[in-house]
Every structure is written in structure tokens, then in C-alpha cells.
Amino acid sequence: MTDNSTWYRDAIFYELYVRAFRDDNRDGHGDLRGLLSKLDYLQWLGIDCIWLLPIYPSPLKDDGYDIADYYDIHPDYGTLEDFKALVKGVHERGMRLIVDLVMNHTSDQHPWFVESRSSKDSPMRDFYVWSPTNTRYAQARVIFVDTEESNWAYDERTGEYYWHRFYSSQPDLNYDNPKVQQAMLDVIRFWLELGVDGFRADAVPYLFEREGTNCESLPETHEYLKRVRRFIDENFPGRILLAEANQWPEDVLAYFGDGDEFHMAFHFPLMPRLFMALALHDRTPIVNVLAKTPSLPDETQWCIFLRNHDELTLEMVSEEEREFMWSYYAPDPRMRLNLGIRRRLAPLLDNDRRKIELLNSLLFTLPGSPIIYYGDEIGMGDNISLPDRNGVRTPMQWSAGKNAGFSEADELYAPVNDDEVYGYRKVNVDAQRDDPGSLLNWTRHIIRVRKSLPALARGTIRLVDVGDEAVLAFWREVADQKVLTLHNLADSEREVSLDLSDLGGAEVKDEVSGQGIGVAVADFKAHLPPYGYLWLSFSDGGVG
Ligand code: NOJ
Q1: How many CB atoms are located within 10 Å of the residue 237 CB?
Q2: How far is C-alpha 506 from the chain's CA centre?
Q3: Active-site annotation holder among 76, 82, 160, 202
Q4: Catalytic residue among 244, 382, 388, 477
Q5: 463 alpha carbon to ligand 1 midpoint, in Å?
Q6: pLDDT band at 2, cuts 50/70/90?
Q7: Residue-level pLDDT at 400
Q8: How far apart are alpha carbons 81 and 539 in whole angstroms?
């Protein structure tokens, strides 16, 4: 592990669901000990930082995003001792670990809420947002549109309504209450003292509510988040905050503050546009979103992704674009959920290796630190017969053995994927590790190449118009290195001509294949097969 305080700008992230990863105690649920036994795999792959979905005690109405105790581990996953062993194991391998911090809401089983709802006079009444009517904050949108009609839920006991932005089993905490603010800082301290390297902070836009607004990204919210950052900087320097704020880039910018709020934030609007550009064979959606992406304060970084544990969200696209995405990528209505698509990467891309590589190539070259969703490195499939988002949370496929090598139990938390195309007998880590041409080995290779090119992690981006809308070309540049990437979004071959005369005859190399492909001249020709891509570097770094 390097001591570099801006390590996250160079890091490759990996998101994983502990329940799905590896079951050590044979109860059919993945656990922390199981994950510990698989850390060598993640290190081998080249992962720098692991993000764990919530691991806390929870009734699991929202798979752990409904926390019933911020200070313990869900019994399915193990104990705090196991967690300490995990942190140690991660750090010994030179990796880092961040955990989910769910600040906005708790479970309705959390003792704070149980106490709060017990009476209007409860000393904890103000830990949550109560109202005698369900008409306040009418401009706030409902997020889980498939299941919730309102952000208010009626509570019979006291005859009042409580506020919730997600499931009604997830009441929102009341950040106007200084005690809530302090309580969350205490939680943060607890996990940092246990050695975590930071947090993926869930649903941060919604902390405060104000009448007459949409109750998102309010100044009060930013003020509190800055306080969290100060607390971390003062007490735990080098640990990071990664924002989950599903907003337009100009609104997400505020979450970086002046470099004094989040270190990182997911780039939500970019993600669907990568899929859109591929479907349309046209770079325009990507070009447009990059044009709307502001440059960031020093020492901050986007976190970019193709898929995650949720539906592929289409909140940050127009209605017309959403219809297009749904009809193209989710023809079966069961593939749709809320404003999104509940499918994994490989099935979305017809299991076409060329498309999977192309989108990953964009993930590893566009500005931001890439995050891989567990299983996508081997091309796992999904199971749309499972409810909610469970279809993209099935057991990791380690081998062709019993239960895909995930567990020795007879009953699992969810069925292992066993279909003909994506099932574990065919798609698994063991088989792909032994196959030099596998997606897994390709992913490992691309991670290594990415790490050898600092321009891809920290460089500026400059788009080049190559006169063909199917080809996205951009430079990534740092002081002593230039890299030019080309991506062919079409299913036909393309040849583009580039003026590389500035590079004074430097030798041109494609870093992915390791092949020299000529000399930088005024009329440099690059040949791209269908869905092909090139990462071009130049002798002397391209800077003479
Ligand atoms: C975002 C998380 O990614 C999602 O899984 C969860 O349901 C909501 N926040 C509510 O916590």
C-alpha cells in the first residue's frame, strides 16, 4: 500500500457484495471469512480498493441499506473480529477497503426509530422527520417509483407521518437535529478506528429537507458533508469519501466543494451514455456528456462504472433516451425496474466479447477511477426471475464444482446461475484463470496496462474529431506523457487519419497489444476492427 495521500486517483476499485462472494461457514450466505479467503484473487487481478455493500445488522428489506445497528456486523457475515481480520488481510496485500455509509436513513427496526415512533413525546422523536400531514415537501420526487407512492408513511401509533426517500421501511434521519449530526460522526469514527480506508456514502443528496425545494443537494446538506470531511481530515488523513449522488455533473460538482467535501463521486450520467453510444454506433452521447462534465478541484476524482448492484439507472437521461434504452437493452418488461434496467454487463452486451472489451476500454481510459462490479470480470449473467435487484446479486462463480465453488451448503441465499450461456459450469474463475485468452485474463491485463500509463489516471482529456461519428478519439495528457485512445463504436471496420506531425516522428505503440504500429506523421492511419480500440503511446512519452 503506497502512502500517497491521493492514492484513490490511481486506484482500481472493485465493488462486492459479501453475501454473494464466498461462504466460509457453510450456511449458504457469503461472509467476511469467505471474502478473506479470496483476497489473493483480488490482489492477483490488480485491485487496489474494495468497496463492500452494507455489512451491518439489518432486516434486509433493502439488502442491508436498511441498517438496524451501525456498530456491528450482520450475523450472516460474521463478527467485528472477522472484520478486523479482513482489514488486516486487505492491508497486508497492499490493498484498501471502503465500506458503505448509509447516512440518510436507518431501518425501521433501528432502536432509534423504534424509540422515536413510540410517542410524540419520545426524547428521540426528533431523530426522524415527522409531520401531522403528508403534504409537506411536495416537490420532492419519489425514487422507488415501482413500489412507493409517496415519501410519507402513516404511523398508526402516533397518528403522524414519517419521511422516507426510499422504501417506507427506511425512515430518513432528521439532520436538522444536532444530535443526529453528532451520532453519524460517531459512527464514522468507529469504522475509521477499525481501519477502513473510507466510505462510499449512500444517498447523500437527501440529508436535509426544505419547503419549496426538491429537497436535494441543499446548502445545509453540503455544509454537514463538509463537516464530515473536516472531521476525517483532522483525525484520519488519507481516508476517503466517495459520494453516491445520482445527479447531473454540474450538480455533482458541488459535492467536491473546493476540494473540501468529497474526494470522489460517481459519474452517473456518463454511464448510460456509454451504452447509448454503443447502441447507436455514434459517439455523440459521450461527447455531449463530457462537454457537460466540469473539471474538478485538485486532488479529487470521478469514480466511473459500467454496472453496479442496482438497476442501470436511467434517471439522468431524457424521457426519449430512456424509452430508447429500455427498448434496446430491456425488451422484456421483467428487465425493467424503477427508472432503470436490472441486468448485468455481459447480457446487456449480448455476451459479445468485442462489446464487453470496448466498454471496458472506455471505463479504463475516460477520466476517473474505474470500478468493477464483482463477476463482471468473468462475464457473469443475471437472473431476471428473481425480484428487485437480486438478479444481479447472485453467487460469484468460482468454479464448475458444487454451487460454483461459492459454498458447500445445500441451500443458498439465492440460486447460482446455471443457464446455458452464463451458468457457472461455463463461466467461472477457475476456467478463465487457466485460459490466457479469457475475459478474466484480458481484464487483468488491461488493469496492468492502465497502471503503467499515469496519463490515464491523472491526465487531462482532449477530444479529437476524426471525421467519423462512430469513432471516439481522445488524448489523455500529463506533463510527461500523452496517450491517444480510439474507440470504434460501430460493427464495421473503420480507418481514421490523424495529424500526428506535432509528435515529430515518434514511434507509435498500441499499449494493449504491445505492438508498434508505425511512426507519428501528418497523415497517420489507424485501423480499427468492428468495436475495436487502441491505446496509443509515443516514444519519449510523446513530449519530445
Ligand atoms: C442507493 C443504493 O445503491 C441502493 O442499493 C439503495 O437501495 C438506496 N441507495 C437506498 O439506500
Answers
A1: 8
A2: 37
A3: 202
A4: 244
A5: 34
A6: low
A7: 98
A8: 51
